[in-house]
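name: query_chain
kind: protein
chains: 1
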Amino acid sequence: MGMGSAFWASLRRILWAAAIGSFVGAGVSAWFGEKGLWLALPALTAAAVVASVVASRNRPAAKKNTGGEEASLPVLSPLAREVIERLPDPLMLVDPAGRVLFANRAMREVIGVGVERKHVSSLLRTPSVLEALARTSATGEAASVEFVFRVPVERHYQAYTARVGSNPVVTTLLLHDLTSVKRAEQMRADFVANASHELRTPLAAVTGFIETLKGPARDDPVARVKFLDIMRVEAERMRRLIEDLLSLTRIELNEHVPPSGEVSLEAVVREAAAALTPLAGADRITVSIDAADGLPPVAGERDELIQLFQNLIHNAIKYGRENGRVWIALRQTSASGRRGSDAMVTASVRDDGEGIAQEAIPRLTERFYRVDVKRSRERGGTGLGLAIVKHIVNRHHGRLQIESRLGEGSTFTIYLPAARKPTDAAVTEVL
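structure:
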């Protein structure tokens, strides 16, 4: 068969398999429910593609060897492999012994690269998913399981399992990401709770001054000017609070989505520091930046990283000594990790302020936690700055380190992975 004929034959099989997947989906709607059916259709279609292409191979499946394992399995056509590889949802094919035969690009981003021929239990440490895979492989019954990955960032998934073929048997595992849905639900609840709590005080103050201006201070120009100034301060505080809450909500909603861009950390830090030059000048604080030569770019979202360093530098200025200094140092280091880049870029922001008690350091990134409430509010703080920093760092797969001693100032160090060119793992032709 010529190249053109082979292509059209493979294409016909895939289209026919997709139609079969949709048809089979109607029959299992009672299992998944109407809403779950639409989420399960990609898994059913992918399973039908696998079944169609595997069944269409002319060579028979190899017999089991004396050790009870499959000696070899039919090979997916390049077109079928490409279709599965480009599916947006993570998909894995597993043999009866629990070994991974194939994992598409989306799945490798979840569990790591170089997964073929490894046992699925060494890659997914979720008992409910492993039990569903084993049950489906043994009985042929489709299953649906919801589970959570806690680290490095909490992610929620719905796992669908289905068995295709009979000789050889292949079990498909498809993951549907529910993180955005779960986060949206939690964000709405958190925003209402936090906004109602934090806005209560400034709103009460503004309401009280309005009543005073309408009553006792109606004809008192001195009191009117004073109260209007206070109302302006409180209104500005509410505006900052709402902006920070919205910003934090937006960052948390996308925290599970790694950034795709590359940025120069030195350029980001210099831009953030330049924006705060008037604030530093008002307190006569000198901000100095020391960047090592040849720093690699980092994988990151430019606007979020600028916001991160503006918060850190603003805090250093706000809590530093008058006529003091803020030191910013950028260096390259290394860190080991199964999925991340070995090269890391660090940025430390150090002030010469009063320092922070050791018992307070673990709570600094909590929402609305303030070491000095009075001073924070006087300097325009909302108590959300370091919470925003923490979630931006999490999204960038980085790390935040805080060091401080009373009377000696504080140092906030950010570790971010250096950017690297994406390299897709070679797909082994074991299926």
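note: The chain has a mean pLDDT of 77.
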